[in-house]
Write a structure and sequence with these properties.
The protein has 128 residues and is α+β, with helices and mostly antiparallel strands. The protein has two domains: 61 residues, 2,3-Dihydroxybiphenyl 1,2-Dioxygenase, domain 1; 49 residues, 2,3-Dihydroxybiphenyl 1,2-Dioxygenase, domain 1. Helix content is 16%, strand content 44%. The protein has two helices and eight strands, in the order βαββββαβββ. The protein has an eight-stranded mixed β-sheet, covered by helices on one side. It is globular.
């Protein structure tokens, strides 16, 4: 069974959202450049310094990015063994690829898909 491992919050104003979640919820936020726009890492729980994975069982961290047509609502990300294989299964079952496999250097890769109900979901594949 594939596990939920990450969440993403699309925002219209990254600085405003960082201030809101940092001051009200206490999340730790770190912005990093990612191509054409910035991506903010959202730390909701402590992580192992080597693997960057949460140290609390069942806890997940997430991210914030500027809202786009592809990611206009929160995205739940699921860990899979092989994104390309999963995307083939998703398409065969009636889903659509929103963003193909995209490498994140030194970490893994992600993709977005739309399910049969119109929800955009994420896939994550760890580096081997």
């Amino acid at each position: 069974m594939s596990k939920v491992v990450h969440f993403e919050l699309p925002v219209d104003d990254l600085e405003r959202a960082k201030e809101f979640y940092g001051s009200t919820i206490g999340w730790q936020l770190q912005t990093m450049p990612m191509g054409e726009s910035d991506y903010t890492i959202v730390m909701t729980t402590p992580v192992d310094e080597k693997t960057q994975m949460p140290t609390e069982p069942g806890a997940i961290n997430g991210g914030m990015m500027i809202r786009s047509a592809a990611t206009s609502a929160p995205v739940i990300t699921i860990a899979v063994e092989a994104i390309d294989d999963s995307l083939k299964q998703i398409e065969a079952a009636g889903g659509n690829v929103v963003q193909a496999r995209t490498p994140v250097p030194g970490m893994g890769a992600f993709a977005y898909f739309e399910d049969t109900e119109g929800n955009v979901m994420g896939l994550w594949e760890n580096d081997a």
